[in-house]
Amino acid sequence: MKKKYTVTDRLITMITGWLAGLVVIALAAWGINTLWGYYTYEQTNDAQVEEYVNPVISRAGGFIVAVKFEENQPVKKGDTLLVIDNREYILQQEQTEAAIQKGAAQLKVLESNIHTLERTAAASQSQITATGAKVWKQQLDYDRYKQLYNEESATQQQIEAMQASLDVNKSDHKSAEDNYEAATSRIADIRAEKAVVQAEIARLKALLDRHKLDVSYTTITASYDGRMGRRTVEVGQMIDAGETLAYIVNNETDKWVVANYKETQVAHMHIGDSVKVVADAYPGRTFKGTVISLSPATGSSFSLLPPDNSTGNYVKIVQRVPVRIRIDGAKKDIDVLKVGMNVNVYIPKKQHHG
């Protein structure tokens, strides 16, 4: 029995030794690999996937009568997302159209009045010519009778008759001139009134265009190819203009990663550097990327309340510089990366730049 326990102890000791050796070798390999990684790459796990996520905003208020999308649904540019009750907007449009028609009718009436007054003015002008001729003839007759009267060959009654006829003709001539001036003045007034009506019609046409826009705003469509995000509306809900109704992720733009590197890591980074990206969701899969920009300031400088080290005790804190990295590759391959996912970013420290 004593010999059996001794063999067992030796076996356990040997196995334990092998396991300890394997653990030491594994730790050494892991340590060497980690050190080599830190020596070869500038790396950070303070990085997230980014993509344009835009709100769907209503430009018109009213009751929702149809919601034609579901959360996470892919949509194409121009697809109808929401429909708002447009009856009030259509009534406003029809009222403006009726006002434009009324203005057009007023223009026709004014044109007719101008035509009538032009004919009246022409008739008055003819009367001016005719009465002017009569005045001229009557003046000659009066002058002749005046001469005869002076020679005592005409009577006082004849002179008075000639004077009366001359005064009547002059009065008719003056009346014709006044009628002509009144007609031309009225034509000028109507033309001014016509200009006012034309300006009002122009204003109403602009207002009609606005009403048509308001009607078009009651149908909300996708501005680009994308995927719908969170939905916050339902049929029958009353909304206001400018209200956010949903979110859409833009499929027409590239995905990128914002990696927040320590300020001590960015000295040798350049635009165009190749990047290796590993997502926490897919640890066995590597994505390739390219540095497309480095932030002009640290992240804290863009915060709502940037630090002011002159206001109190100073404690030095290593700052982070956002580095923007475009994810390269086929769209179907990188679609697995979702906005907000955490990733690990590796940028080689030594890269060739031509």
Automatic annotation (TrEMBL):
GO biological process: transmembrane transport
Residues that span the membrane, as ranges: 12-39
Ranges of residues in domain Multidrug resistance protein MdtA-like barrel-sandwich hybrid: 56-249
Keyword Transmembrane helix: yes
Database matches in Pfam families: Beta-barrel_RND_2 (PF25954), BSH_RND (PF25917)
Xref: Gene3D superfamilies: 2.40.30.170, 2.40.50.100
Topology of this chain in the membrane: Single-pass membrane protein
Keywords: Coiled coil, Membrane, Transmembrane, Transmembrane helix
Alphabetical list of InterPro entries matching this protein: Beta-barrel_RND_2 (IPR058792), MdtA-like_BSH (IPR058625), MFP (IPR050739)
Domain CusB-like beta-barrel: 256-297
Protein localization: Membrane
Coiled-coil segments on the chain, per record: 100-127, 173-214
GO cellular component, one term: membrane
Protein name in the entry: HlyD family secretion protein
